[in-house]
Amino acid sequence: MSGNKPENTKHVKIFTDGSCNTNSGDGGWAYLLSYNSAKKTASGFARDTTNNRMELTAAVKALEVLKETCKVTLVTDSQYLKKAFTEGWLENWQRNGWLTAGKQPVKNKDLWLKLLKLTKVHDLHWRWTKGHNGHIENELVDKLALSARKKKRGSSS
């Protein structure tokens, strides 16, 4: 989703991941922001959640940190997150009154609304990477999200 963004905007790469234990409902999320040589990571914990919710939360938290309009390449291993933006799922859900094709309420609507708002601020480009496949940044955010879930607390650097 692109808008009329200034040509001189910073290009930031964001890598996100979510983690959830389906038995306990404990979850973790993490992101890595990369701009030139600067890097910033953060992670967090949530109870009674789902993996998809943690994937969305990671993207929301990362985009909320940006202090100005940026060109963003967001890399995720979540097809759910990427395809909602790249294959028209969000447009369909909105057109259908936030119901899925099966006429069920769209899950995580609160986070989708936040993401939609953030996509109006930034020039967002979505990329997918296969999880647990040696992608350095994806492996890092995976470890951070898992650690946040297991320790029941996040971190930032």
Could you walk me through the main structural features you see in this protein, from its secondary elements to its overall organization?
The protein has 5 helices and 5 strands; from the N terminus they run βββαβαααβα. With 157 residues, it is of the alpha/beta class. A hairpin with a 2-residue loop joins strand 2 and strand 3 (38-46). It has a single domain (10-151), classed as Ribonuclease H-like superfamily/Ribonuclease H (Nucleotidyltransferase, domain 5, 2-Layer Sandwich), CATH 3.30.420.10. A 5-stranded mixed sheet has the order 3-2-1-4-5, sandwiched between helices. The radius of gyration is 15 Å and the shape is globular.
Overall tally of structural domains: 1
The radius of gyration computed from the alpha-carbon positions, rounded to a whole number of angstroms, is 15 Å
First and last CA, distance: 29 Å
**What portion of residues belong to β-strands?**
25-35%
Number of DSSP strands? 5
Full CATH superfamily name: Ribonuclease H-like superfamily/Ribonuclease H
The dominant shape is globular
Largest sheet data: 5 strands, mixed
The spatial strand order of the largest sheet comes to 3-2-1-4-5
What is the string of helix and strand elements? EEEHEHHHEH
The CATH topology name reads Nucleotidyltransferase, domain 5
Mean pLDDT: 94
- Bin the helical content: 25-40%
Total helical elements:
5
What structural class is derived from the secondary structure elements?
A: alpha/beta
Second CATH tier, the architecture: 2-Layer Sandwich
Unreliable runs: none
